[in-house]
C-alpha cells in the first residue's frame, strides 16, 4: 500500500500510525487482536474514521485482551452498541467477540497468536486468506491482507524510498525472509 506513504506525512491522523506502527513487526497478542479488530471495523469505511475511533474502541473493548473479550455477553453487546466512541455495528461487534473466543482456543493450542502466525509463515496472500477464513469470522482478502501488512507478514506497507521503510528494514519483518 505504497499510496499511504504519500498521504500520511503531515496528516494528523494518518502520520502517527504510518510512521510508528504500520508494517512494523508485532508479536504482542493484545496488539495483534486489536489490529485484526481494527481491520474488521474498517471494512466498508475509511481508515481515517477507524483511526479516529481507535481510542474509543480500545477503551470499549477494555484493551483488547482476548481472554476478557471472549467472556462478553448480550449485555456487553448492548453496552457497545450504545457507545458513541466506537463504530456501532452489531455484526462487527459480534465478530470481535467470536474472534476473541476463537483466539483463546488458538492460544491454548499454540501458546500465542503471534506463534500461530509465525508457524504458518510463509504463505501467499490467498493461502493466508483461506487460513484466516477457516480460523476466524468476518475475514476477507482486504481485512486479512491489511492485517498482515500492518504486522510485517506481507510486503507493501511502505515504498522503499519511504523513511519508515528504512526504520522497518533493520527489524527484518517476516515478509523480507520470504523466498
TrEMBL record:
Signal peptide: none annotated. Keywords: Metal-binding, Zinc. Coiled coil: none annotated. GO terms for biological process: base-excision repair. Zn(2+) binds at residues 5, 18. InterPro entries: Adenine_glyco (IPR005019), DNA-3mA_glycosylase (IPR052891), DNA_glycosylase (IPR011257). It comes from the Bacteria. The keyword Calcium does not apply. The keyword Metal-binding applies. SUPFAM superfamilies: DNA-glycosylase. One of its GO terms (molecular function) is metal ion binding. This is DNA-3-methyladenine glycosylase. It comes from Magnetospirillum moscoviense.
Amino acid at each position: 500500500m505504497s499510496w499511504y506513504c504519500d498521504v500520511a506525512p503531515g496528516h494528523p491522523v494518518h502520520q502517527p500510525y504510518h510512521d510508528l506502527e504500520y508494517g512494523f513487526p508485532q508479536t504482542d497478542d493484545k496488539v495483534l487482536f486489536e489490529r485484526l479488530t481494527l481491520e474488521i471495523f474498517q471494512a466498508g469505511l475509511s481508515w481515517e474514521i477507524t483511526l479516529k475511533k481507535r481510542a474509543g474502541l480500545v477503551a470499549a473493548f477494555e484493551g483488547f485482551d482476548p481472554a476478557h473479550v471472549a467472556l462478553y455477553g448480550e449485555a456487553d453487546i448492548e453496552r457497545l452498541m450504545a457507545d458513541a466512541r466506537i463504530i456501532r455495528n452489531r455484526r462487527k461487534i459480534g465478530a470481535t467477540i467470536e474472534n476473541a473466543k476463537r483466539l483463546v482456543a488458538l492460544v491454548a493450542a499454540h501458546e500465542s497468536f503471534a506463534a500461530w502466525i509465525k508457524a504458518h509463515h510463509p504463505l501467499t496472500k490467498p493461502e493466508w486468506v483461506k487460513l484466516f477464513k477457516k480460523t476466524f469470522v468476518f475475514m476477507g482478502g482486504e481485512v486479512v491482507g491489511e492485517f498482515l501488512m500492518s504486522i510485517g507478514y506481507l510486503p507493501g506497507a511502505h515504498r522503499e524510498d519511504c523513511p519508515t521503510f528504512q526504520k522497518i528494514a533493520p527489524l527484518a519483518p517476516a515478509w523480507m525472509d520470504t523466498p
